[in-house]
Amino acid sequence: MLARIAREIPTNLDSTTGRGRIIATILPNFLRVATLAPQSAAASNAQRLWLAATPALFVFLWSTGFIGAKYGVPYAEPFTFLAIRMALASGLLLLLAIATKAPWPTARSAGHTAMAGLLVHGFYLGGVFYAVLLKVPLGQVALIVGLQPVLTAFLAGPLFGERLSRWQWLGIALGFIGVVLVVSGKAGNEIASGAGIACCLAALGGITAGTLYQKRFCANLDIRTSGVIQFAATGIAFWFGALLLETRLVVWSNQFIFALAWLTVVLSLGAITLLYVLIRNGAAAKVASLFFLTPPVTAVMAFFLFGEVLSSSALLGLVVTAIGVALVARGK
What we know:
It is a single chain. This protein has 332 residues and is mainly alpha-helical. The chain has one domain (60-330). Helix content is 78%, strand content 0%. It has 14 helices and no strands.
């Protein structure tokens, strides 16, 4: 049914307007890619073009997560904030799954997708948010979490039989060097607490293990219903964490509501869907290498939005990282 909606969308919009052209082009292809529905030859070509653009769109959307967190975290504690976010995301996806009669996974597959959600959303988001709460400098957080593509490259070989060429390993190295250059001026001289570093390592382990687990056990599950399970399971975990560790007070300011809406719709629904589409259609190491681009893109966003200094080393890091990711994606 979702694929049929996607086919009908262009005819229901006034494509002569700018907004109509944008929606008529983007939304149908997003739905087709997300559902992997069979299409005609012309539609298949459009789907291939959309898949080609997916990595860049994913990097952009994923990078906005740090901007959204900066806007929203001052008004709610991490687990409380994330529990609300997961509840909203799960509810929205549930409505979509019911409306489109999406297939539900078996009990065994549901367990696997819940575990993947706890790793990708629970450990990664919870670790990063609490590391920030514990005053770990953002540059240090980015450096530690930035090891994810390296770990994924090492583990993807024995787990999936993926073999990287010398050029790809060079790309992995350049990607990490680029991240170091970007955050070198922001890492700070403070010595992070042991608890803060532990949160960063939990986030690193969660996003790495979650990416690999998703590819191994959940690659063929419907994104709509598996998303409901992942967000619901993670939301319950966050809520228990909030009950045990936090006051659960929320200041419902306009800034908090905007940040919550952005992180729920754009990140939890949009970016995560794109990530799972990429995992389904590509090698784990290639997909992971895209995370190298997050710190540079975030630095550029912070420059325009908050006036943060964009140093020459950051600009050089952006170029070096882009070259590294291109080498990994080249695959030869």
